[in-house]
């Protein structure tokens, strides 16, 4: 059965998935949301890959180079041994912007003996829709679409190019390299250049992570998650992706297969909040500028999600020629959820804006423009909070009065009032505080259901929903409030199954959910901790983190029985929640007492 045994590499412009056996099975050039060049993860026959084929006797292991997003795959055999170091270049030359070329470097480090392998190199342009042409120029292999020569990838290597194209056996006796680039290189490509790019990229990630706070416990898994969250940011705009893949199914054989290569205001805001809390405030300002550009053009009508450059139209399209991950069709690109109204999105966004004002205020003109944005969001929430919406889980064919959407509308106006107070704008603060109080009264009156002893999913049903576990997290209700304590216990009893959490069990557009939504288990951990069930919370946390894949990555979902990863990978939602949960059980190490290992 196909599994998500993949590491991710990237440079904040694009990313690739490398299998546990060293095969590049997913990559889009030149950007995260461009058509794929390799997509074997979505069709093992047609999708395309770049891999090393070795005899069955080779033992293959994989791990990250410590504190970086560089992936090491080690091939060991009695006849010889070699290592492949995969990375995308990211560093800042002196007095220049970051260098983030759409390139994959495969540094092949000779270790000993005479290891043998064949290179299987088969790009599949434009989601494997276009016929492929290979052209060996002597200096590089140019592989391009027969329908559009601009859809192209270039391969450079110290290994003979005809051997690469023919898949002939290579006996390794020295260090070698493969460079895959979306653009023709205008500088000589050799091992020295590849090694220099490796060292520059390694130093960048080491320096970036060194600015993170250090923790007594769980430091390694926290830092791996922070590296993932950073990798998911788009260099040119500050947008944050939900994941780097499309159509990895929530359940094998079912149809909940979505494209997550976009910026949801909810996911991005929560990611930035986590990065800010762990020592990385620089991304918040860039994300705020991304949102400012959008809101300037959409007074009071902005969407729940955008393309990574701010695109508004994200038309969903199916690719019937691809068999899908685990033969789970359809494969989709684009995402029609951009049409939806999800009122909870405002709350996360305003929470980040509030922290921006407190921790990283910009210049006077920036502050004034963000203040204008606050007024637009507060106006929109005040106008819309009484209306039904699609909710946090993006129910496609129905709108209801979701309790958690109302709660996050309260958060939006609560934080807006707090910002107004900081700005000494008493009139706005009073107006928004009064409206927030109305929302709170409405939720307490219509969302609490005494017959089940809990808040419910919507005003008009008695279903349970994991999002209710976040009511305390955002300050809507105190942890010692009996209504919250009872809600946590009732939700846990209804949705906790085989050590993991459902989002909900009610039927939606596609039937009843059948997999565990990873972030929801982390929400349960926090809720239990906050109501005093700390030992139970830690037991669950320590068990859940063992379900990460071999290099510490989480996707969106987990199989209840096998605990196998499902859904798009790596998932920002899952990793930000992992960090927030881990911080409950550890302490920051003061910088003065921290020593580098």
Could you write a compact summary of the structure shown?
This protein is of the alpha+beta class and 597 residues long. The chain contains 14 helices and 28 strands. It folds into two domains: 6-208, Beta-galactosidase, Chain A, domain 5, CATH 2.70.98; 211-593, Alpha/alpha barrel (Glycosyltransferase).
Please name the defining characteristics of this protein.
597 residues, alpha+beta, Beta-galactosidase, Chain A, domain 5, Glycosyltransferase, 2 domains, eight-stranded antiparallel β-sheet, four-stranded antiparallel β-sheet, 28 strands, 19% strand, globular
Provide structural commentary:
It is globular, with a radius of gyration of 25 Å. An eight-stranded antiparallel sheet has the order 6-7-8-9-15-13-12-11. Helix 12 runs antiparallel to helix 13 and helix 12 (518-530) runs parallel beside helix 14 (572-582). The chain has two domains: 6-208, Beta-galactosidase, Chain A, domain 5, CATH 2.70.98; 211-593, Glycosyltransferase, CATH 1.50.10.10. The chain has 14 helices and 28 strands. The two termini are 39 Å apart. A hairpin with a 4-residue loop joins strand 11 and strand 12 (141-145). It is an alpha+beta fold and 597 residues long.
> What multimeric state do the chains show?
single chain
Give the total of domains: 2
Helix content: 25-40%
CATH topology of the largest domain: Glycosyltransferase
Beta content comes to 15-25%
Any low-confidence stretches, pLDDT <50, length ≥5? none
Distance between the termini: 39 Å
Number of DSSP strand runs: 28
- Strand count, sense and closure of the main sheet? 8 strands, antiparallel
